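Chapter review: from sequence to fold.
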Amino acid sequence: MKPFAVFCLSVIFVFIAHFLGISILFHLPGAFYQSAGSLLLFTMLYVGLSFLIEPAEKLIISLLKLISLNKWAAFFAAEMTTILFLWTVVFAADELLEDILLTTSAEVLIAVSFFAVDKWLYPQLQKFNTIS
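The token string follows.
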């Protein structure tokens, strides 16, 4: 029972961290949302869509690593693919909700911010994503 409780607390912590991060990022470009509930729904959609789209992102990055001749070009393409997929998730969550209004620049800012936070928080995972 204890591992399940630790798992539940971890999931709650990650969700709260995403919620706080998204609420802070929404204030930077002046994005519009009607209530905290709509922001909470956006966060749930963002997390859910991220889980759905991540396997496709990893598959495309693996294919880029296989077909690329230059390791730096493959590395750059992999990083841009990650940002593109993050933007796709933010865009889809924004379009699915009518209570949230994000400009394209705000969507890109949120995607790049999450990319930067991911690189900062999980540097040990980056050695597995680099081109050998």
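Two observations follow directly from the output. The two ends are 41 Å apart (CA to CA). Strands lie at 32-33, 100-101.
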